[in-house]
Model the fold of this input.
Amino acid sequence: MATETLTLGKALNTGLRKALENDPKVVIMGEDVGKLGGVFRITDGLQKDFGEQRVIDTPLAESGIIGTAVGLAIRGYRPVCEIQFDGFVYPAYDQIVSQVAKMHYRSQGKVKIPMVIRIPFGGGIGAVEHHSESPEAYFAHTAGLKVVSCASPQDAYTMIQQAIASDDPIVFMEPKRRYWEKGPVELDAPLSEAYPLHSARVARAGADATLLAYGPMVRTCLDAATAAAEDGRELEVIDLRTLSPLDLTAAYESVKRTGRCVVVHEAPGNLGLGSEIAARVTEECFYSLESPVLRVTGFDTPYPASRVEEEYLPDLDRVLDAVDRTFGW
Done:
């Protein structure tokens, strides 16, 4: 089985290429995705190889991109829309919530909307205003949308293909600050044998406390687990992968063994996904918990200027501090 070491960004590019090769109805569209290859070069080389009819440079109009994709999806195409930066998705929010999420339901299943909306999200790259948002809770809260987030090159490669092959509209959250991190990718494994798209997985086994994370925070939690191991504390890290529908089976199993749980995400804590996850874990694992479920999140402020973003973002120290607090009960 062919395995290559790829960056997460290159794994996405390779997965998109394979989807274009396998299905002539797949089209990619977005601002600068063609000749430039996207601002993060995720679509680099695809327009050159597949042509301007399948990799389409659109006007700078997010609502127009999504609205056009809805029409394409109704006619049997599988559009993959790139929102250039997370903070640019809001002009398209009306289309996503009012049309994309509801068309299948409103038509009693007669109309499918097989489209993927790719959103690079999160901070940590020193970007300017509106370029470091974490809007995942808006979409996870919206019935009719599915929301997933990859955290490794292998998942990036397989999950983007699975999302494109799905008949459901999927918001695909990409951790932009992890685009350049490398890992092994099995390139010729059949998609039918890949890990299920809407399933969480154990990223690191442990017995003392459970860390639940997704997207960019998975690496942070893995680093925290490595640091904790030096002090003799084994932390289990669960990569949630799917935010809607949430799959917490692995989380429940883990928390029932460890008795302690910390949820980590970059988005602000108020009404963030961590709130829902903490509530469900408490309901399911109440008699196994040795302490309350704690959250480590971004602060309840607009995303700050890049020079102070490291003060805003959850880091290894904040995660380990939360773990210490769970052992204080």
Observations:
- The chain has a mean pLDDT of 97.
- The first strand starts at residue 3 and ends at 7.
- The two ends are 48 Å apart (CA to CA).
